[in-house]
Amino acid sequence: MAPRITEEQRQALEQSAGGPVEVEDDQTRKVYLLIEEDEARRRLGDWLRRELQIGFDQADRGESRPWDIEATLAEAHRRHAERNP
Fold first, then answer.
1. In degrees, to the nearest 5, what angle opens at C-alpha 85 toward C-alphas 68 and 79?
2. Which site among 23, 51, 75, 80 is 20 to 30 Å from 17 CA-CA?
3. Tens-of-pLDDT digits for all 85 residues of the chain?
4. Quick one: DSSP state of residue 5?
């Protein structure tokens, strides 16, 4: 279950006209976004379509090469080992 929204967050969302609200953690200084779930899904879908189109356009122009899955997996394993010694 998601944590309950605070009254301060509710007021900020009401003033945002449906856009995301930035919330900064005063201890870590990390910034988070409060956004309605359907809007977040729509924005993520829009972003994904734009990024995929870039790749499709590059492939159509012949700017692609075969995917070396073994090299990709080796790199992923290396990064994982670095983060989890």
1. 25
2. 51
3. 788 988 998 899 889 887 899 999 999 999 999 999 999 999 999 999 999 999 999 999 999 989 999 999 999 999 999 999 8
4. P
Q: What is each CA distance from 39 to 15, 52, 65, in whole angstroms? A: 16, 20, 35
Check if the beta carbon of residue 31 is closer than 8 Å to that of residue 22.
Answer: yes
Q: Which two tokens stand for residue 43?
A: 């924005």
DSSP reduced 3-state for 23: strand
Instruction: Write out the two tokens for 46.
Output: 């829009």
pTM of the model: 0.62
> Can you tell me the distance from the alpha carbon of 73 to that of 80, in angstroms, rounded to the nearest whole number?
10
Per domain, the residue ranges of the chain are 8-83
